[in-house]
Amino acid sequence: MYTRQQIAALAEKWLNGTISPSEKKEFEDWYNRQKPDELYWTDDIGEEEIKRKIFDAISAEILVPEKRPRRSLFAGRRSAIIKWGIAAAVLFATAGLFFFNSTQPPEALVNAVEQPDNMVIPAPPSGVKAVLTLDNGKQIYLDTVINGYTIVQHGGTIEKKSQDELLYATAGNGETGFNTITLPRASQVMSVVLSDGTRVWLNVESSLQYPVAFTGPERKVRLTGEAYFEVSKEQGKKFLVETAGSVTEVLGTHFNINAYKQSGEQVTLLEGAVRVSSGERSPVLLQPGAQAIVNSGKIKLNTSPDLESVMAWKNGLFKLQHADIYSIMQQLSQWYDIKVTFKGDLEGKTFSGMISRNTQLPTVLEMLSMTREVKFTTEGNTITVSPY
User: Fold this and answer.
1) Considering Cα of 317, then 258, then 362, then 57, what sign does the dihedral take?
2) Which one is the CATH code of 131-307: 3.40.50.2300, 2.60.120.1440, 2.60.120.10, 3.40.50.300?
3) What is the pLDDT of residues 2-17, one digit of tens each?
């Protein structure tokens, strides 16, 4: 017979990842013997602390899919957790906390979402749909060519290393031109290794224009959308990223730029140092862990951005941190290639949590609607969002 203190200690170990295999088996055996109304948590841990612990645990590791439905490992007076079995996710809003791990097919989960017979259920992107546009205007759809496919351009070679990687493998003859790599909606992430060794990961609905070879005193590229850069160091040859609203200057560093038109630009530094400028404003020097927010020529400094949220797209996740429904639906529309309309007053409704990008769209909509903050109606490929 386990005491309350022993179970609380095992639960704490389970949350922080220090539980041993034997302890985990003990905990699960105890849990599976309990009746739903006998599950408890220690009285001295409040709802917000439980939320924080669960969210931190799920952020650190997406749980292994389960073969059958399991009851929640946690029960509380004010919060509820639902645990089912395939695409792990956690989501909470002011209405409560929900943890989904669902084995239900999309058709079953979508029942709570109003839908006509002609509803289209988009699947998550199954591959990379990148288009490479050469400096002569020729377009190459990279998903139609095999791995190892090689292009000779200005004496240098471009190789499709894998489904999600393009490599500028050898130097050219000194001549150069500008190529563009474009990722449309509903495409998985792709990386490009430029001629100087810099690696760039592109998010969905983004494009990068860059020279075939960097031959001048500086290395300059142009970005629309979002990308993560790992810039190779080259003494005395700065690297510049231009967007519609800013210029980011680096000598060698790791950083993310979100320059989608729907929102203000954000430059987030993970390693090294960058200088961000916009219009006639004085440049802002970023230190690791800081973010510059650029809007209408003004630069605002955020010294403590949520780095996991910034990098979630590169790691195959949607991570929401007090996100409003408009920004959430923007991400979903880009990833699943859907149209979104809004109806009614949706201001002030924010969500936090994490969802795998491999999750079926109906499952995501079901999770959002179960917060009782928003609801959805669908017509073909269009989703309308309204207050619950």
Assistant:
1) positive
2) 2.60.120.1440
3) 665 676 667 666 655 6
